[in-house]
Write a structure and sequence with these properties.
Layout lengths: L15 H5 L5 E5 L5 E5 H15 L6 H13 L4 H17 L6 H26 L9 H13 L3 H11 L18 H14 L3 H11 L3
Antiparallel strand pairs: 1-2
Helix pairs in contact: 2-3, 3-4, 4-5, 5-6, 6-7, 6-8, 7-8, 8-9
């Protein structure tokens, strides 16, 4: 849900930069008049993200993008915020149909690249493989979904196929079966095959990865 400026003073405009430079990762925020409490950068980034989620259903995506951008400025190493911001730009591009400016798509891909970089760093740290870049199913799948959304089916197929060869994320969830994205990638890839008339390839793929 959205939060009211009258109850929470959030960092905007000139207040954003000094807050981002604080060392203790916190700031006194006025709540209900004389009462005060400490909110960290992560707390405020979460509030901006919630507001952005709600605004995704608005007639314009611009307000959502602004909120996600503010959240990312507070937590620049948060991979999920970068991914959400990329998704918002993709939706903005889709609302402009085939006349979407290239800059909007480039913005989306820039933030997906940032998301992939951050997730790779997290996976590398979790696996203790310093100096070796770790790419997981999750990263390849999200690239595939982005290209699929844009109608770039050749690139989408390429990334979906990579999912079958890559390891499961160690940082996503405790349940490794839940974070195995081979079934989702196979389903999306099969839908592309079906739309192109490759029914047998789609059937083989679904039997292999989506059968119980």
């Amino acid at each position: 849900m959205y939060y009211d400026r009258a109850h929470v003073v959030h960092p905007i405009n000139s207040a954003l930069r000094p807050f981002a430079e604080t060392e203790d990762d916190s700031r006194t925020v006025v709540v209900d008049g004389p009462n005060t409490r400490q909110l960290t950068k992560s707390d405020l980034a979460a509030l901006h993200s919630v507001a952005a989620h709600v605004m995704l259903v608005a007639p314009t995506i611009a307000t959502s993008i602004v909120q996600y951008t503010m959240a990312l400025s507070l937590c620049p190493n948060d991979a999920s915020v970068a991914l959400h911001l990329a998704a918002a730009y993709l939706h903005q591009a889709s609302r402009r149909a085939e006349h979407a400016p290239r800059s909007v798509v480039l913005q989306a891909m820039t933030y997906i690249e940032r998301y992939a970089e951050l997730r790779s760093m997290q996976e590398t740290k979790a696996r203790g493989t310093s100096g070796h870049v770790v790419v997981t199913q999750e990263i390849a799948y999200n690239f595939g979904r982005a290209f699929h959304f844009l109608g770039m089916l050749g690139l989408a197929c390429e990334y979906y196929e990579r999912v079958f060869e890559l390891p499961v994320s160690m940082t996503a969830v405790a349940d490794k079966e839940a974070s195995d994205l081979r079934c989702e990638a196979a389903y999306n890839l099969a839908s592309i095959y079906i739309s192109s008339g490759s029914m047998m390839r789609a059937k083989a793929l679904l039997l292999t990865h989506c059968s119980i």
